[in-house]
Structure formats: C-alpha cells, structure tokens
Write a structure and sequence with these properties.
A: alpha/beta, Methyltransferase, Methionine Synthase (B12-binding Domains), Chain A, domain 1, Rossmann fold, 5-stranded parallel sheet, 56% helix, B: alpha+beta, NADH Oxidase, 5-stranded antiparallel sheet, globular
C-alpha cells in the first residue's frame, strides 16, 4: 500500500498525469497519477490515505520547491494537472462524505483587472492542498465577492490585483467586505502589493507566492 | 510630425527561437512551445507613434523619468499590440493551464520584441534629424504611474492600433505596450537603465530588455 502512496506522490511531484502523457521524459510510457490512483483504490487503499498521504504532501513539496525558485511555472502546472487527474478518482468519496476538504477558498481578480495566470496558479496550489476552490474569475466586483462569501459562510477569501490602479479597487472591496465580515480571513496577492498595503486595507495576509497562501490556510 | 505613423509587423519576420522561450519556461515543453510559436507566426503586430514638438511632462511621470524627458526637444509617443491575433490563440488554449501559460509567455516576449522594433524606428527618425533618442518608458514602470496612460493616449488618435483604455488604464486587447521616448540633442540611449529605479519586483530588472 505504501508503494501506491509513494508512486502517486512521485507522479504528482514530477507532473506525470497518465500513461499517455509524454511528460516528464524519464517517465514516458509509465502509469501516471491517474492510473495509479484508480489502481490503489481498487486494491483497497483508502481514499483518505491517498489524499493525505500522497496528494497533499506532494503538492506541498512542489509548492516549497516553487517558492525556492527550484521549479518553473510549467512544472508546477503539470503537477497540478497530475493531482487533478488523481482527484477525479476521489470525487465519489468527497460526495459520500468519506473524505472531506479542509475548507472552501474563494478567489478572484479584482474589478478592472483581467490578469488570471497568477490567480489560476494560486487556485491550483490551494486545491492541491485539500481545499475546495471557488474561482470567480477576473474583473470581479465587490458584490460578487460578497455574494460568494454569503453563500459560503466559513470560506476564506483571496483577491488578486496586478495593476497599481486596480489596487484601489482591491482596497475598496476589502474595506467593504471587512465592514460586513470583521472576522473573515482575506488573503491578497499580486506583483505590485506588499505586506504594508495588505495590512493598511484590512486584509489578513499578503501572499507573495502560492505556498505562503497554502501555509496560512493550513495553519 | 504630429501625425500618427502606423506599422504592421508580421511576427514571422521577428520569430522567436524555441530555445529563447525555454529559457523562460524551463525545459520539457519544447513540442508545445513549437506548436504555439507556429500559431504566432501567422499573427501581425500593429504599432505606431506620434511625435510632439516638446518635452512630455505630466504629473504622473514621477521625478526619475521627468528628469530625462525635460532635457528633450521632442517626444515620441508609441503604442503596439498583438491585437486579436493573440486573443484568438489564447482562447484556443484557455482550457489547458499549461498551454495557456506558455501562450501568455510567448505573447509577452513578442510584445517586447516589437517594442524594441518600434524603439529602433523612433531612434531612426530622431537620427534622421540629427538628434538622439532615449530608451522607451511606459506608464506602470520606473515610477510613472499607470494612471498616466490617460495623458499619453490623449496625444494619440482615438483607439490607436485598435487599443482601448479601460477605466483602470488597462489596455485592451491585452499584450499591448504604450510608452514614450525622449528625443533631443542631449538625449542618449542608456544600455542598462534599471539604475534609475528601485522597484525590486519589476520584471525588467531580471531581463534588462530596454
């Protein structure tokens, strides 16, 4: 059983999705996270063990390596894809309640801003750490964030802004939501931001990279 | 010269090599890069510039850039875009996180390449008058506030090269660059210009593309 856990973990760390995937070249023709997860479940490995013993730790390792600039973005994306291919097999167990997500994370790029690459990366890393992610997309107005928070009372909220001009709309959104939900955990990220800005507008944390967001959520 | 001089630059004439892109994305995705890059070679970038007969001085430019521009006699204001050509490619790959990311990286590199081309065109224009020209500067960098886009666009024809400014000063289509180049007797191109700016997270600091 440990063998499956280790193999799935390696596939996720190296971004090996399935047998047909040519990436990474040194695993060409080998089964990926997709086949191995299916096989593991068929051979009696518990879904929770796959989630907590293989998938979450593997994505944690990937996040750490990326934070330390030892991985390029495409390698992280391949790991996220491999993780998603394993997650498909776990879906029925989430539905039945046999395994549970750590919580719900709502994410979006603020009004006036159309940048989505960084937001998508954070979204995938957080999903890989065991959270249910609600991605509101780009150009998200305060009201849309609020509606999602209302519908998911225990969720954590994440906002992204990549322009100095849209930092202003981030500030408006955070202040507006903070007035209504003083205890809500709000993470902000994006190249022009910093911790001082996050603290001044009432956000709980500035995440300079996805791993910092993951560590904060799991703390 | 106050008219807007427009250009069309087929990207096939400025093709990026796979190895140049791999330097940015890391190895292992050469086939995907080749495929996406091939799609870009069918795209043409649109670009153009207007020259005003005075230094550009706006409050949003900040002291560092203003010091360069106040020595100029003329200012060239330019825009360029990969236009809907990029958007069509991005839309085709939007559903795949890897291909979408690679498309974004390749498109950003092409906009930088075309920005260098238009910078050279402006330099040639300045040189034809016996004048020097500066590096290109853009709102959002080196202390020039992004809100400075509005003043910059006020010197250009409406919707230049099909580019519109949103309320947040984002250019649409995305993968567009706007900026200004100082022209004058005492203006010189600086090989590396990051020394005038202290922005540690600026993407140009790593690449020194000027």
């Amino acid at each position: 059983m440990d063998n499956y856990i280790e193999k799935i973990s390696i596939c996720i760390q190296k971004g090996k999705i399935n047998m047909d995937s040519p990436y990474p070249p040194d695993m060409k023709g080998m089964p990926g996270a997709d086949e191995l997860t299916g096989e593991a479940l068929n051979n009696g490995v518990k879904a929770n063990e796959i989630l907590t013993g293989a998938m979450i730790p593997a994505m944690g390792i990937v996040g750490e390596l990326f934070k330390d600039k030892k991985l390029f973005v495409p390698q992280v994306l391949m790991s996220a894809k491999a993780m998603n291919s394993a997650l498909v097999h776990l879906k029925p167990y989430f539905t039945s309640g046999e395994i549970k997500r750590r919580g719900t994370f709502i994410i979006g790029t603020v009004a006036g801003d159309l940048h989505d690459i960084g937001k998508n990366l954070v979204s995938m890393m957080i999903e890989g750490s065991g959270w249910d992610v609600i991605d509101l997309g780009v150009d998200v107005k305060s009201e849309q964030f609020l509606e999602a928070v209302r519908s998911n009372p225990n969720a954590v909220l994440g906002m992204s802004a990549l322009l100095t001009t849209t930092m202003e709309s981030m500030e408006k959104s955070v202040r507006h939501i903070r007035d209504l939900y003083p205890n809500l955990r709000i993470l902000v990220g994006g190249a022009p931001l910093n911790s001082e800005f996050a603290s001044r507008i009432g956000a709980s944390l500035y995440a300079p990279n996805p791993q910092v967001a993951v560590e904060y959520l799991n703390s | 010269m106050e008219t807007f001089t427009g250009y069309t630059f087929p990207l096939s004439e400025h093709a990026l090599r796979t190895e140049d892109i791999v330097r940015l994305t890391g190895p292992g995705f050469e086939d995907e890069i080749l495929r996406i890059n091939r799609a870009f070679l069918k795209v043409s970038a649109l670009a153009g510039f207007t020259v005003i007969e005075r230094p550009l001085t706006t409050p949003e430019m900040g002291s560092k850039i203003s010091r360069i521009f106040e020595k100029s006699e003329k200012t060239a204001l330019f825009v360029l875009t990969l236009g809907i050509g990029y958007e069509k490619i991005a839309d085709a790959y939007r559903g795949d996180s890897l291909l979408y990311y690679l498309t974004d990286v390749i498109a950003s590199e092409y906009t930088e390449v075309i920005a260098q081309v238009i910078n050279r065109k402006i330099a040639e224009y300045a040189s034809s008058l016996g004048l020097g020209s500066s590096n290109r500067y853009s709102p959002g960098y080196c202390g020039w506030k992004l809100s400075g886009q509005r003043a910059l666009f006020s010197f250009l024809p409406p919707i230049p090269c099909g580019i519109e400014l949103t309320d947040s000063c984002l250019m649409k289509p995305v993968k567009s660059i706007s900026g200004a180049v100082a022209i004058g007797k005492n203006i010189r191109f600086q090989k590396y210009d990051c020394s005038i700016c202290k922005d540690e997270i600026c993407l140009y600091r790593k690449k020194f593309i000027l």
